[in-house]
Design goal:
By secondary structure, the chain is an alpha/beta fold. Helix content is about 30%, strand content about 15%. A 7-stranded mixed β-sheet has the order 3-2-1-4-5-7-6, sandwiched between helices. The radius of gyration is 19 Å and the shape is globular.
Amino acid sequence: MQQMDETPFYPLARFSRVSRIFPHSVWREPGILPLGNYPIEKSEFSMKMQSQFHHQNVHVRRCRVLVNVLENLLPRNARVLDIGCGDGRIASLLSEYRPDLHLTGVDIHLRVATATMAEVGRRRPDGAASTDPTATLPRISVCAFDGVHLPFQEGSFDWAIFLDVLHHARHAKDLLKEAIRVVRQGLMVKDHELSRPFAGLTLQFMDWFSNVDKGFALDCHYRSRGQWSSLWQELSLKAVFTERNLGLYPFPFSLVFERGLHFLSLLKKSEMFSGRSLRS
């Protein structure tokens, strides 16, 4: 069976001309795009504008698309663990549309905005203003973890979801094993795949652009479609649903940042791994 390479994929290290595009002062390490704070005041302003552009043109749409997919896949009254929940926006939106779900989030970086949702709650996922200016999205329970070990007992949840998390995990296989341990049914994974020329370079830029304001560096471990399939097989996971045309980006950005780079898969635990039959 093919062995997974956990070495970070840094395509920019192979293109010296890229350094001319980004000022040298904002690079955290050689060959890695910056994901921390800019050191000069003017760059901080640029970073704020960049973050605002991403939020208005990408993040809101991404939340809406993923929530629409997840709300149609998750069974009623399911207990769901959002691993790497970030600020909790997607889980809270999902809880609003599916109040029957029981959602819990975990992340290695607990943020002030996590699960409060006051700013997002005044707007719908499609960006339209709510008629109630004081409306807030439902809170979700969020706790910290070390990036590998989940602080829950075996079978505590029905499903776990990973939304653009695994390609940042240094020990993705160990984290997946932990997720399999704490769920009874399976996993839902949204991530990237290397399936076209310059895919790694494009994904590296996307990750930098969307995370530049977070204040911490991120590793990037991109995989091909075959590597993902090998990983699922190794962990006795069966992909029963996969969608690659998600519509995360509006035209014309979709021509560059969408085609052949994204997938969302529903993965069920096999009887071999779980030791018991799966229920539909």
